[in-house]
Amino acid sequence: MVAVRLFTIKLILARPINDSTIDLVADSAVSAAASAIDSSIETRSLESGTLYLVGTPIGNLEDITFRALRVLKQADLIAAEDTRHTGKLLHYFQVTTPQMSYHDHNTQQRIPQLVRKLQAGSAIALVTDAGMPGISDPGYELVCACVEADITVVPIPGPSAVVTAIAAAGLPCDRFVFEGFLPAKGKQRHARIDALKTEPRTSVFYESPHRLIKTLSDLAAVLGPEHRIVLARELTKRYEEFWRGTLQEAIDHYNAIAPKGEFTLLLAPATTTFLLSETEVTTELKNLLAQGQSRTEASRALAQISSLSRREIYQISLEIDIYSVLQDKSAIADLSPNDLPLD
Hints:
Elements: H1 2-13, H2 19-43, E1 50-54, H3 66-74, E2 77-80, H4 83-92, E3 99-101, H5 107-119, E4 124-127, H6 139-148, E5 152-156, H7 161-169, E6 176-181, H8 187-194, E7 202-207, H9 212-223, E8 228-233, E9 241-246, H10 247-256, E10 263-267, H11 278-290, H12 295-303, H13 310-318, H14 322-325
Parallel strand pairs: 1-4, 1-5, 2-3, 2-4, 6-7
Antiparallel strand pairs: 7-10, 8-9, 8-10
């Protein structure tokens, strides 16, 4: 049966390529895959009492693997982040395995239930909405519970937006760090962004469209408007896009064109220009204050070229005597308190 399906695909491919041909190839490929999986199931079975982490497509259903389909078909249960979303995938590939929801809001309830099922001998497949379970989702919590309970965990490799994006970004990818989503606000957000000033690796983030401009602006305020960035969206889909440029260019671009869809942001590694020491920062602060800049202005400017945060630099500025650093001390008598750069 599989050989017949593959022969059918070859015949279809001999035709001129158009949308209908592509649809025929896709349908035949799905049928061939289903037949191949059915044949494999007859000779192979899953290990009982095992958790399988199954990678699923991040946009293009053709990226599913034969192994993933076999596991999904043979599993006793599929734990899914969104059963409605996963249901569409299962329906497309003719998988009838029952589902159970497993997401951020029910982990405390679900983890004990799933562990008990595994201990009773069930083979369970864990899937996320897209990509590998555990990457920016609560999958790792279930894995930790299984490891603690001495339950075997088997990864079934699949697509990942992180790896897909960095492979085509055109930035150094021999070393990179994945940061997930930045905190929405507060000290944690500031600390994470400030740390990028000395990050020697390419940094990868996820961001939603409604927070994109704010995140780009916050990054530009710390790293400088000329810092290189790549933005990827709709990965593996028909309208896949990679946008490359500087942070300021990205801000201008997405202010003009409303961002749509979830983004993968890839920041170029920090350069040595962000390595002013505290002593050097103090010296530069005195120079800027002497030129009439306010403490706030000077701190913001130096934060872009040092390893210190804007707040840390501002605290240093408070210890500097403004009167002692003014270049023309004779002009002090002519200045009112409002003229001095004390902000």
